[in-house]
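Let us practice reading a record.
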Amino acid sequence: MTGLFKPAKAQTISPAEASERLKRGEIHLIDVREANEWAQVHIPGAIHMPLSNFPALVDQLPTGKPVVFHCLSGKRSARALEICQEHGKPHDTHIAGGITAWRAAGLPVKP
């Protein structure tokens, strides 16, 4: 039933909030876009864990502070949340609008 499971409590945060929390070291930011997308542009400080490999990587998520996911626009990061919940992980937050919204807000990226 992959894709039919909906997270019970998915939360979205704005790019600005994610940026501030990342700067303060309060979160781990996980980019679930694919390798070619990551190579083109990514958020400084993000950790790359592509959604295509994510089920095998979910047990390797960093610990010690909340995890926030992002992708291009929000669909794949929502799927990452579903996978986390399917694996009993507590993660429930992603960036509204993904890196597209991040860039539109003028927040820093690395080529």
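A brief commentary: Confidence is low (pLDDT under 50) at residues 1-5.
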